[in-house]
Write a structure and sequence with these properties.
By secondary structure, this protein is an alpha/beta fold. It contains 13 helices and 17 strands. It has helices at residues 19-22, 28-31, 38-41, 77-84, 137-141, 177-180, 190-197, 218-231, 248-257, 271-278, 283-304, 323-336, 361-373, and strands at residues 6-10, 48-52, 59-64, 67-72, 112-115, 118-121, 132-134, 147-152, 161-164, 186-188, 206-211, 236-241, 261-264, 309-310, 312-316, 342-346, 379-382. A seven-stranded mixed beta sheet has the order 10-8-9-11-12-13-14. Strands 4-3-7-5-6 form a five-stranded mixed beta sheet, covered by helices on one side. Strand 8 and strand 9 form a beta hairpin. Helix 7 (190-197) packs across helix 8 (218-231) and helix 8 (218-231) packs parallel to helix 9 (248-257). The protein is globular, with a radius of gyration of 22 Å. The two termini are 41 Å apart.
Length: 403
């Protein structure tokens, strides 16, 4: 942070879809714009940006890890912590270095800190006079984790599902953008999440956890899986994930907690394609995410093939992936295990690329043949009417799936 204060500004391309009013828990009405930028990532038109404030703010005094601090406002708690830095007042590195910044929309709560003894997402919480803020990881770990979720029931989901808000990617073709980038849902702890699923042990045999990206808030996910497993000992629990954070030790914890099915979404093999598809600007971070996702598939296959059912998903569109790269993807999967089930997912017009064409059934069949030629023999095409249409920005009022 440079010490500058920012304000969100809309340009003339704004659709007035009201996403930033109805789907974002904005501090505007409580403290004015704090320049957190949480409204930017989910704007379907890309019509919002941050500009430096012209008017001076006032100094805000607060207590951070038992020490008095002050910064100029208005500002979010997270940005205040980043501005103070790890060596504020010549102290040794502070635990505020451990605050994770992952979704940037306030959905995942991975950046949670204790504010006046309650857990809160630091990224969208306005810093206020007299706040008592604790960033000590040990103290935070004692508190029940929370996350914004939307609970879903069939149909079209076929089984009870937990949709986790927040994602570390920023895909212009995000199909579930209206939920992924919103933060006005229910912030539930694992026990509340499981209770509100209201599982019927005679009829519910499967629970899905998807998003967004479920793996962002590690403590919440692990405890939620354990809570579901305790409530329904025989139920299958599936995790849909981009696998960008699934290091081996995380996978071990998930399996130990009770996950039975994992479906990694493999966006690309080439870094340039991966960055374009996922909306990532940092080459270093993108490289780490890309390598981790593929390594997760290798690790799951080598370590848990007899314990966890894994089916990988591969998105397809002529404007995102060349046939040559899809062939590389198919060959790489086959080299790991030709028996891995593969779901070819048709990228449909959505979010910021609503004017893109749909993929023809003929094109998807061509992709299937490429994967079969690589030696893969368990292939499903998910496209056409099998995929519910993404929500149009002008129809947001009709998009709720809470039950």
């Amino acid at each position: 942070m440079s010490g500058k204060r920012f304000i969100a500004v809309r340009n003339e391309t704004c659709l007035k879809c009201n996403f930033c009013h109805q789907y974002i828990d904005c501090a505007l009405s409580r403290a004015g714009c704090i320049g957190c930028g949480d409204c930017i990532k989910g704007c379907p038109q890309g019509a919002i940006h941050l500009e430096p404030r012209r008017e001076p703010g006032s100094k805000i005094h607060f207590i951070l890890d038992e020490k008095p601090c002050a910064v100029m406002g208005p500002i979010s708690v997270r940005n205040a912590l980043l501005e103070l830095g790890p060596t504020r007042n010549n102290d040794p590195p502070s635990s505020n270095e451990n605050i994770q910044i992952l979704c940037d929309t306030g959905g995942c709560w991975s950046c949670g800190v204790l504010i006046d003894d309650r857990i809160a997402p630091s990224c969208i919480t306005p810093l206020e006079e007299g706040m008592q803020i604790v960033t000590d990881p040990v103290a935070i770990h004692r508190v029940e984790p929370r996350r914004i979720v939307t609970l879903m029931r069939p149909a079209p989901h076929y089984h009870p599902s937990i949709f986790t808000h927040g994602c570390n990617y920023h895909c212009d073709l995000c199909h579930n953008w209206n939920l992924t980038f919103s933060n006005t849902g229910h912030a539930l702890n694992p026990g509340e999440t499981t209770a509100r699923l209201n599982l019927n042990l005679e009829e519910d045999h499967w629970v899905g956890i998807s998003g967004g990206e479920p793996t962002l808030n590690r403590k919440w996910l692990l405890e939620t899986v354990r809570a579901i497993r305790q409530a329904a000992p025989d139920i299958r629990i599936q995790l849909d994930t981009n696998a960008s954070l699934l290091l081996p030790e995380y996978i071990d914890e998930l399996v130990k907690s009770g996950i039975t099915d994992i479906s990694p979404d493999l966006k690309a093999t080439r870094l340039e394609t991966f960055m374009k598809v996922c909306g990532l600007n940092s080459e270093k971070r993108a490289q780490r995410y890309l390598e981790t996702s593929w390594q997760a598939v290798r690790y799951l296959n080598a370590t848990y093939s007899n314990q966890v059912f894994m089916a990988v998903s591969v998105p397809c569109h002529p404007r995102t992936h060349s046939m040559a790269e899809l062939e590389e993807t198919a060959q790489t999967i086959a080299s790991i295990n030709p028996g891995i089930p593969v779901t070819l997912i048709e990228y449909q017009p959505a979010f910021r690329l609503r004017d893109w064409p749909f993929v023809s059934p003929k094109a998807m069949e061509q992709v299937r043949k490429i994967f079969e030629a690589a030696g893969l023999h368990k292939i499903i095409i998910q496209g056409g009417q099998d995929i519910p249409r993404a929500v149009d920005p002008m129809n947001l009022a009709l998009s709720s799936e809470n039950f």
